[in-house]
Every structure is written in structure tokens, then in C-alpha cells.
Amino acid sequence: MQEFVLQAEHLEVLIQVVRSEGFQLMGPVVRNGAITYDEISTASDLPRGWGDEQEKGYYRVSRNDSGAYFAYAVGVGSWKQFLQLPRRKVWEAHKKDDAMDILEVLDEVPARAFLGVRSCDLHAIAIQDRVFAEGQYRNENYARRRQNILLIAVNCTTPAATCFCTVMNTGPKVTTPTDLTMTEVIDHKEHYFVIRSESQRGREILKQLPLSSLEERHSLAEEQALQAAVQKMQEGPRKFDSAGVKELLYRNYDSPVWDQVAERCLSCANCTMACPTCFCSTVEDTTDLTGEHAERWERWDSCFTGDFSYISGGSVRASTRSRYRQWMTHKLATWHDQFDTSGCVGCGRCITWCPVGIDLTEEVQRIQQLDKTL
Amino acid sequence: MIPAIFRVEERNEEFAGTVTLRIRGEAREVPTEFNPGQFNMLYAFGTGEIPISMSGSPADGNGYIHTIRSHGFVSRALADLRVGDAVGVRGPFGRGWPLDQAAGKEVLVIAGGLGMAPLRSLIYRLLSGTPEVSRLRVLYGARRPQEMLFLTELEYWSRRMELILSVDHAEGEWPGHIGVITGPLDKAEIDPDNTIAFLCGPEVMMRFCIQVLTAKALPESAIFLSMERNMKCATGHCGHCQWGPNFICKNGPVFCYEGIRRWFDIRAL
Ligand code: SF4
Ligand code: SF4
């Protein structure tokens, strides 16, 4: 690992070097009143001076005067949208008389770099890798998109109130493989990034940047910023013992908490759409008017919809109670048995984007409390 | 994963709304080996794809045999296919019946309604003598005599296996049992140390049969059942067939009751 300091005014150089290496650069932008991820062509596309306020069912971008580029927590949507496409054509089929053929749709996969990936989202990507690329069957569409992604992570020093990565052991500091990892530091009048290369590709990029050496005061300021983030989360309300949570939920399929949450939950599926690890999909088959051309499309689906569990005779999970229970138990319990990891990375998106402000960390704590009193 | 093109070579209407198709790969080299209890995803052009288990002999090597009941868009489109029509096939998928564990045992096959389809593959296999079993009993329940699958064949086989038929209702002459399948099952004598049971049918029916079996001291580890859930991909990616920690498509559809009992007992899981 090599570590250096990149002055904030040279962030533009990093961006242009990455682009000139042939990557389409995706990163945070302010769009429609929210920080989201899209193509970046210059540093001025970044949400400089913008932060986010997140709470249960609440999201606002807000101006700050720090001049920081990455002073928000996590964006609306997630990197998932570039890896597991929200909608894609899977195959085209043709039929003439009694001859049929089916052609797989393999679209161009651009070489992409992700800038500003948070530690929680790195974990989320690693979780989806397990689901799509490391099991018995490989999802080629995902694997091809994922393969060449250049990961430029940015350590999180500005968690939102909804964040609980410290509970899930997924942040705020990056500890998983990346190509480059940066920490943005604003210390008195100085504004710089501590930047580390974690791969050969990362080193090739570092070579082309105007860097200075990392001094102790830089490391110290970085450490302080990260420590402050940890502290902020530890002082917040979103704490539970994630170590025992699988067994807790396995014991509590009959908890009255499911009935209570079902009274509020709209089964709207927002939480599943916002979640960076939720991977469910469905397919749509269509034909044109001639009846000779058919297409199959795959799109994101949610365990909150009625026909998700439909088998002849009706939906297995007809009630909101059974759907919320399925979702949360999957995230925090069955996922461990399926993929040997939690399905939740503590990014808080589901809390922010739930229109009625349901917060899974509260629900876990409720179940925990009742579990203890029984 | 893209479906291979197969063609309907034979179509046989079992009773109104339920057909058995023999399909063969358009490219002759498409392998069609499978283990009894496995399933394919069958694609009806432009309509969709559904999981259907193989109901034919695994030794056939001559394409696949599938029995389809039409109750939704896709199954209707598949059931409406005519001889010569093309159909897309992905598979085989899933884990079938644990044949190795049946060797030397008294085998009890318990089928309800369309559940006979994946069990017929098993019966073919057991009648072929690999693995060799010490006794083969088939209990088959359906709503009415006209809705019994493969009846002629089953009766023909009854020289080599014990066949007990049961229907909910029968008009006119019916030599079998009338009532629920648990009736004859209750009467069957079972050697709990040397019996293995294979079940496929509606969940309630399997639930009641398992109660009878365990009451007769058959260990949970000797009971195997085939589960059904909504399925879009069959490769563990679409998430639809989750059942507790299990994916029916890759961890099943056949499960040992001992391993899934706690999930089987939870409603709306
Ligand atoms: S369940 Fe909620 S907090 Fe956990 S990863 Fe998904 S969106 Fe983030
Ligand atoms: S928990 Fe909230 S976001 Fe999720 S389905 Fe229910 S109402 Fe929608």
C-alpha cells in the first residue's frame, strides 16, 4: 500500500486521469434535490458544499460552507443500479410457423470507475458478488458489469443520523479491497485528501497525480475525523447487538412486533428498492403485434408485492405481516445461512426512504426487548 | 441462461386441463439426463416460463416428459401446445429424490394430485432396479377417479409394487378407497427402522401424512418431500422461491423433513 496526500484543488487531476485511462466515471451529483450517482466529467459535477439530512422518512440536501466534496452520507439509490440493472432485456425470441429461436441479449459493458464509494456500499457490493457471481450459477450480466469496476472509495466522516454501519461492522472506515481509498480532511485552512492505493491499477493512477508525502499531522487529522464519525453513530439511537440477531429472529417468527409493524407498513416496496443488497428480480415476457417477436425483460422486484410469492391458489405471503417479516428476517437472519454474511450493511437507506418512517433498528430492538421479557 | 429449443413429439391429455408432453431437443445432442425429482423451466413463446418437474423415466434419454396442469397463463399456453410446436427448455435444476438412501429399504411413495408427476420418475427408476429396494408401496390420492394421473400404467405396475388408490369423491364403481389419503396410510403397517417415505402433493396433504408417519415412529430423517414456490430464474438469483433460509430451486425442491421441519411449521413463510 502506498499513501500520500492529494490537495483538494488537485481532485480534478485525479478525475481526468481516471477518465483518460478509459473509464466512464460515476460519482455523486446533486439532482432533483437529492444526492444521487451519475456520470462525472469534472470535479465541479461533485456535490461540493452540499450535505444531506436523513431521518426516518425524511431526506433533505442542505448547503454547508465547508467546501467539502464528500460531506454527505449515502446517496439516494445505490451503486446496485449500475451492476444489477433496474431493467434489462434478457433475450429476444422469434417464431415463424413452427420454428422458434432465442437470442441472448449481451449489451456493451462500459469500463467504469465508481468514485466516492462508502465502506457500507463496498460491503453491499461484496454481498451482491456472493449472490450473483460466487454461487453455483453465475449471473453473467452482473459478473460482466462488475468485473472491471475501478473502485475509488471515500472514507465516511459525515454519517447521517440513519447510519448504523458501526453496528453491522461495515464502516465507517474502508477495510475491504478497493483500488484507491481516500479520506477528505478539512483542517483549519487546509483541504486535502489522504489517498491510498490498494491495487496495481490504483498505483498506476497515483503515479500520474501531483502528490505530497503523508505526514503525521495528516494521519492524525484523518484519524480524528474517522473517530468523530464513529462517535456520532455510537451516541445515536441506532444500536443493537447484531451478533445474536440471527438467532433472535429465528426464535421470533411469532413475535407480536410483526403485527404492530404491519399496521404501519404500506407494503410499498420503497425499502427494497433503496437497499443496496436487495437482489430480487422478476421477468416480463411480451410479444409484438405480429406475434412473431417476443422479448424477455428482467426488472427489480420486491418481496413486498402481492404476486411475488404467488403459486396456484394464491400468494404464500398474503399479509403485510408476513412480507415485512420475510424482508427483515431475510436481511438480518436467513441471509447468513444463505450467503454466510448479513444482508444488511447499515446504510440506513430503508429508514430514510420509508414513507411512514419504519426503522428496522427500532424493530429489532423491540423484538429484543420482548424476547427478554418472555 | 438461454432456453434450448425443444419440440413437442407427443401430447396426451390426461384429463381436462392436464396434459403430458414428450419433448425432444431440436439439436439432437441436447443431453436430457436428469435425476427423478428435478425440474425444468419451460418457456411458452412470449408468455413466460414456469418450473415443471420431469414425470418420465430418467433412463429414457429420448427427450423429456412433463405433465402440466393449466391453471395460469403460462401453464395454459404450455398445455395448449400441439405436436410439432416449439418450446424453450432450461434445466435440469434442483435436487431430486435421494435414491442412494432408498437402497435396501421399504419405500413408501405418497402422492397427492399432480404430485404424482415427479414421483412417477422415481417409480420408473425404482422399478428398474437401481437402487434395489426391498418393498415398494405407492399411495396415491386424487380428487376423483378421472383426475388420477397415469392410472393404466400404475395398475399395470401393481404386479411389481403395492398400489393403494384413494379419491375424495367417486361416482359409480370405484375399487379404491374413498376419503383422504391419511385413511389408508394410517392402516399401512410401517417398519420404522427400515422405511423411507417420499411425498409430493399439496402442502396440507403432506402435513397430515407426515403426522401419521411420525406417529408410526418413522424418523424425520426418513421422510422426504418436494416443495413448490414461485420461481422466475431457477438459479438462485431472483429471490422468489425463498423459504426461510432455503431456495427451493437450488436447495430443493426435494428436502429431508428433518432439515426443514421448523420452516414447514411456519405459516406464510
Ligand atoms: S436493510 Fe436498510 S440499512 Fe440495511 S443495507 Fe438495506 S437499506 Fe441499508
Ligand atoms: S417498511 Fe416502509 S418502505 Fe418498506 S414496504 Fe413498508 S412502508 Fe414501504
Task: Write structural notes for this entry.
The complex is a heterodimer of chains A (374) and B (269). The longest helix of chain A has 20 residues, at 216-235. Chain A has helices at 11-20, 80-83, 119-132, 140-147, 165-168, 200-206, 216-235, 245-251, 256-264, 270-274, 320-339, 349-352, 360-373; strands at residues 2-7, 24-31, 34-39, 50-55, 58-63, 87-96, 99-104, 112-117, 150-154, 180-187, 190-197, 212-213, 281-287, 293-300, 310-311, 314-315. Chain A has 2 domains: 2-234, no CATH class; 245-373, no CATH class. In chain A, strand 15 (310-311) and strand 16 form a beta hairpin. Chain A is α+β, with helices and mostly antiparallel strands. An 8-stranded mixed beta sheet of chain A has the order 3-2-8-9-10-11-1-12, with helices on both faces. In chain A, strands 7-6-14-13 form a 4-stranded antiparallel beta sheet, with no helix packed on it. Chain B is an alpha/beta fold. Chain B folds into 2 domains: 4-93, Elongation Factor Tu (Ef-tu), domain 3, CATH 2.40.30; 99-226, Nucleotide-binding domain of ferredoxin-NADP reductase (FNR) module (Rossmann fold, 3-Layer(aba) Sandwich). Chain B contains 7 helices and 15 strands. In chain B, the strands form 3 sheets. A 7-stranded mixed beta sheet of chain B has the order 10-9-8-7-11-12-15, sandwiched between helices. Chain B has a 6-stranded antiparallel beta sheet with strand order 4-3-6-1-2-5. Chain B has a two-stranded antiparallel ribbon with strand order 13-14. In chain B, helix 2 links the parallel strand 7 and strand 8. The site of one iron/sulfur cluster has 12 residues of chain A, from helix 10.
Précis, in short:
With 374 residues, chain A is α+β, with helices and mostly antiparallel strands.
Considering the chains and any ligands shown, give keywords for the structure.
heterodimer, A: 374 residues, alpha+beta, eight-stranded mixed β-sheet, four-stranded antiparallel β-sheet, 16 strands, 34% helix, B: 269 residues, alpha/beta, Elongation Factor Tu (Ef-tu), domain 3, Rossmann fold, 2 domains, seven-stranded mixed β-sheet, six-stranded antiparallel β-sheet, 7 helices, 15 strands, 32% strand, binds iron/sulfur cluster
